[in-house]
């Protein structure tokens, strides 16, 4: 599959180079336009080449086109090699253009491409040439003032010819196109007689895997005075860019080199090369290498970072000897090195002696390189990309006022200007970083109000302050305001996307999207662990939002809305945090509350056990949530079966922290002496001993959990003895039915003997379950 050519980038003016302007496209009625359209029924290679009777082949038009004429080629596949036999003039060039950017003409086959020999003033726009085997897809010889723009030129796999060959070419340019293929030769070759040629904003791609036999190069330069500017180069086994002996005064600037299996930039015997503001990352051999008889080379403002040298599968064993920047042989005499960032993360973290530089064959770190070479006074060995900001030398040879994508240099107010030259705030590397604002949000829900709250206060400004916040809520509502905080109520439950866009005073913006689930609640509850008789809530002794069982009572932070998540599953929503309880898919991380959208990680199956407890089975891991008796251990969904540590008592929030006032004497029931004595209705006010949580055991039954001692109330002796709060779990004696009487009171019926609890002797004696009917002594008011 071939990449689409680039389009729409403005050409950069270069000192010493000639870039011709784009010829104005001719109108269809212009008699100087020759048309080629192979699908036309009236096409003829012997015809006039008009709209009504176009040529069938591009070659037929190329044979007759003259200065000032344009060949307009319709979309489609043309199995031919086009030889352009005539020249234009500076004022009237010959132009070949494809029909449109959306329907480019493609030259296909083993000899597909364009050939130009001994001609001048020709422009080729928006063509593709693919599949060539033994000849270059673009072959230009002994020609001048040739412009090729927005084209795709590739050769077949393992071809031994370059995709583009320039021999004896002068004052010409290739711009904004795609060049490559898995050639064993090169993307572009420029021989010793080629001069004044610019390669601008091209995308050159070779192999996508390491091949020890591949010594191809992205761009091979052998002639003087050529420019390699604003290109991206990837995947060549020899070098991304190779500047060879005889190539004097070559400009290699603003290029992005990634994934090179060989050298990034190799200056091999060339004189006067300006290697400036390039970004070279992911190379297997030296990032920038200057060797042989190289002289007067400048290496400045470059960013370099390599592959992991330990990863021989990606690069081969030779990678272990490479450096980021190396100066060898005679080049040590006068090569200028400064203002580069040579970042080698893996050497720093996996080697006791990082060696990011080489000087005359010896590998070393930056400080040793400075001492040996007297160079690199402003170089840095750092992995922090911010160190490249506002720190380049704008007086370096070949420096451009704009970066690889045409952005002007910009001063980052958050960084000191540490560069040199007339512009002290230019960045190192191929791209000028112009920070747009970064949208950061804290999103919380309120399921009771079916609303969302978005707080974008933590958003980071770019170069200028944030001027506005735009919130799109996914239901058609859009709010734009100066404040970073907003709330919105939804008319109905559902899944929504909340988008937040922050815009600076310079018009630059950043955005993010948050998914939310505004789902219906079926109740609000707390979870009391069977293992430790503690409530689940956010843990105080861990630095992340983990859930644990370390709460002595059911407080607001331990309340969970039970949410219908569909398909018989539930989600647990924590109103205190405004987020859902989350379990990881592997069952290795603690439960936390950090999600606003219900995915499998937020879904659980609520299992009702035979003993009245409940268990939670994570939909993502398929495992049960565990709460150990150790209150310092977070909850985790890691159990394959249900045991004691996977069981919880469900306490509906409305039934927590209740009191019971006996109608018999209008006194409150107390777990006397912190629960060591039987329950009795003898208190005039409510304190800790008079508070109880009513546990939902299912099937209309409850357990009574005394806050006095965190024990369950039991109808002791199968109901023959007074009630006492002394049990660590619910059994048959600890089950009661709560009966709501018509007068607003309640009564308690012990499951063990089906008798009603009474405040014996008008409350003078302890409570006991021994009555068969409900009277005044058997009625209580819930407080």
From TrEMBL:
User: A Pfam family matched by this chain, by name?
Assistant: Beta_helix
The ranges of region (Disordered) come to 377-424
In alphabetical order, the GO MF annotations are: actin filament binding
Compositionally biased tracts (Basic and acidic residues): 378-389, 404-415
| UniProt cross-references to InterPro entries, sorted A to Z | Actin-crosslinking (IPR008999), Beta_helix (IPR039448), Fascin (IPR010431), Ig-like_fold (IPR013783), PbH1 (IPR006626), Pectin_lyas_fold (IPR012334), Pectin_lyase_fold/virulence (IPR011050), PKD/Chitinase_dom (IPR022409)
Q: Which residues cross the membrane?
A: none
**PANTHER family with a match to the protein in the record:** FASCIN (PTHR10551), FASCIN-2 (PTHR10551:SF9)
Q: What is this protein called?
A: PKD domain-containing protein
């Amino acid at each position: 599959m071939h990449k689409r050519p680039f389009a729409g980038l403005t050409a950069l003016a270069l000192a010493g180079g000639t870039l011709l302007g784009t010829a104005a496209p001719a109108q269809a009625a212009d008699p100087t336009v020759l048309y080629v359209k192979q699908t036309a029924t009236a096409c003829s290679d012997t015809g006039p080449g008009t709209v009504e009777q176009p040529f069938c082949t591009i070659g037929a038009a190329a044979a007759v086109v003259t200065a000032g004429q344009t060949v307009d080629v319709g979309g489609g596949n043309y199995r031919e090699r086009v030889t352009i036999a005539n020249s234009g003039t500076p004022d009237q060039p010959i132009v070949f253009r494809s029909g449109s950017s959306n329907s480019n003409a493609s030259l296909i086959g083993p000899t597909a491409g364009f050939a130009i020999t001994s001609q001048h003033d020709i422009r080729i726009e928006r063509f593709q040439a693919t599949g060539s085997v033994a000849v270059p897809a673009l072959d230009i010889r002994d020609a001048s003032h040739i412009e090729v723009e927005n084209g795709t030129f590739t050769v077949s796999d393992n071809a031994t010819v370059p995709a583009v060959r320039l021999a004896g070419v002068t004052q010409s340019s290739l711009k904004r196109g795609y060049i490559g293929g898995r050639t064993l030769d090169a993307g572009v070759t420029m021989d010793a007689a080629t001069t004044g040629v610019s390669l601008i904003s091209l995308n050159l791609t070779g192999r996508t895997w390491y091949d020890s036999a591949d010594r191809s190069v992205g761009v091979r330069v052998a002639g003087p005075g050529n420019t390699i500017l604003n290109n991206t180069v990837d995947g060549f086994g020899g070098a991304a860019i190779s500047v060879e002996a005889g190539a004097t005064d070559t400009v290699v600037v603003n290029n992005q080199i990634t994934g090179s299996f060989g050298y990034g930039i190799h200056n091999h015997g060339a004189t006067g090369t300006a290697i400036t503001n390039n970004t070279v990352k992911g190379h297997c051999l030296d990032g920038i290498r200057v060797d042989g008889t190289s002289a007067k080379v400048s290496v400045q403002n470059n960013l370099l970072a390599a592959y992991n040298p330990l990863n021989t599968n990606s690069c081969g064993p030779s990678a272990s000897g490479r450096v980021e920047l190396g100066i060898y042989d005679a080049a040590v005499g006068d090569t200028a090195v400064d203002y580069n960032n040579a970042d080698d993360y893996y050497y720093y973290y996996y080697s006791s002696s990082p060696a990011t530089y080489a000087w005359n064959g010896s590998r070393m770190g930056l400080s040793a390189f400075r001492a040996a070479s007297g160079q690199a006074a402003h170089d840095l060995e750092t992995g922090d990309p911010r160190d490249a900001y506002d720190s380049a030398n704008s007086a370096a040879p070949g420096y451009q006022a704009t970066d690889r994508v045409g952005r002007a240099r910009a001063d980052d107010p958050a960084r000191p200007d540490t560069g040199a030259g007339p512009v002290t705030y230019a960045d190192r590397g191929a791209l000028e970083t112009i920070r747009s604002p970064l949208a950061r949000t804290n999103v919380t829900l309120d399921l009771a109000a079916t609303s969302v709250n978005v707080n974008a206060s933590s958003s980071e400004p770019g170069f200028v302050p944030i001027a506005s916040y735009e919130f799109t809520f996914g239901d058609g509502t859009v709010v734009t305001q100066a404040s970073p905080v907003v709330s919105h109520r939804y008319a109905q439950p559902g899944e929504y996307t909340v988008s937040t866009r922050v815009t600076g005073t310079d018009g630059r913006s950043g955005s993010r999207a948050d998914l939310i689930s505004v789902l219906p609640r079926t109740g609000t509850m707390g979870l009391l662990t069977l293992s430790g008789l503690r409530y689940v809530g956010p843990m105080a002794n861990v630095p992340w939002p983990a859930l644990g069982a370390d709460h002595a009572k059911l407080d607001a932070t331990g309340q969970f809305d039970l949410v219908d998540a569909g398909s018989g599953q539930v989600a647990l929503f924590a109103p205190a945090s405004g987020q859902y309880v989350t379990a990881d898919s592997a069952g290795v991380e603690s439960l936390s509350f950090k999600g606003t959208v219900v995915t499998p990680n937020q879904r659980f199956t609520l299992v009702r056990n035979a003993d009245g407890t409940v268990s939670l089975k994570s939909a993502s891991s398929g495992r049960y949530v565990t709460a150990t008796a150790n209150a310092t251990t977070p909850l985790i969904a890691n159990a394959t079966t249900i045991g004691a540590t996977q069981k919880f008592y469900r306490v509906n929030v409305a039934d927590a922290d209740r009191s019971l006032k006996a109608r018999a004497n209008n006194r409150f029931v107390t777990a006397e002496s912190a629960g060591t004595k039987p329950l009795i209705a003898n208190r005039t006010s409510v304190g800790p001993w008079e508070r109880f949580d009513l546990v939902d055991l299912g099937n209309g039954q409850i357990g009574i959990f005394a806050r006095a001692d965190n024990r369950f109330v039991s109808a002791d002796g199968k109901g023959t003895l007074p009630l006492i709060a002394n049990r660590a779990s619910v059994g048959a004696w600890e089950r009661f039915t709560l009966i709501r009487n018509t007068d607003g009171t309640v009564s308690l019926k012990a499951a063990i003997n089906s008798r009603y609890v009474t405040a014996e002797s008008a409350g003078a004696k302890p409570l006991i379950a021994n009555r068969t009917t409900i009277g005044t002594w058997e009625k209580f008011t819930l407080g």
